[in-house]
């Protein structure tokens, strides 16, 4: 959804075009979620791992004051609430003050 708008860095024009073609999408050599996490596009892990990753982001961009915490489209509301509560309780306290 976001690749044709230019929000997915590193994709070739051919890969972006293949996203709209069900016959080509699985052979377009698109990056995996694991590769996106390795590249820093997604933060994935335990609360401790997320805290560590966010501290790395804070070091790389010292003036950064806000981040977006989102869930993949289609995530059930109960899961979203559970994960946001866990984030608030176990990750956010490391960044207060």
Provide a descriptive summary of the structure in words.
The protein has 97 residues and is mainly α. It contains four helices and no strands. It starts with 12 loop residues before the first helix and ends in a 7-residue tail after the last helix. The model has no long low-confidence stretch (mean pLDDT 88).
Which keywords apply here?
single chain; 97 residues; mainly alpha; 4 helices; 41% helix; 0% strand; globular
TL;DR of this structure?
The protein is mainly alpha-helical and 97 residues long.
Topology:
Blueprint: H1 13-18, H2 33-38, H3 47-60, H4 77-90
Would you tell me the overall average pLDDT? Answer: 88
Give the overall silhouette.
globular
- The radius of gyration is 16 Å
SS-derived structural category: mainly alpha
Question: How much of the polypeptide forms β-strand, as a percent range?
Answer: under 5%
How many beta-strand runs?
0
Q: What is the helix fraction of residues, given as a range?
A: 40-55%
What string gives the helices and strands in order?
HHHH
Largest sheet: none
Low-confidence stretches: none
């Amino acid at each position: 959804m976001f690749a044709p708008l230019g929000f997915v860095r590193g994709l070739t024009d051919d890969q972006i075009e293949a996203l709209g073609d069900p016959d080509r999408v699985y052979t377009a050599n698109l990056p995996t979620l694991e590769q996106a996490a390795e590249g820093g596009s997604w933060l994935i892990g335990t609360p401790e791992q997320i805290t560590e990753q966010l501290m790395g982001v804070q070091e790389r961009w010292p003036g950064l004051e806000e981040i977006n915490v989102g869930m993949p489209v289609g995530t059930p509301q109960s899961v979203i609430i559970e994960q946001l509560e866990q984030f608030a309780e176990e990750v956010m306290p490391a960044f207060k003050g």
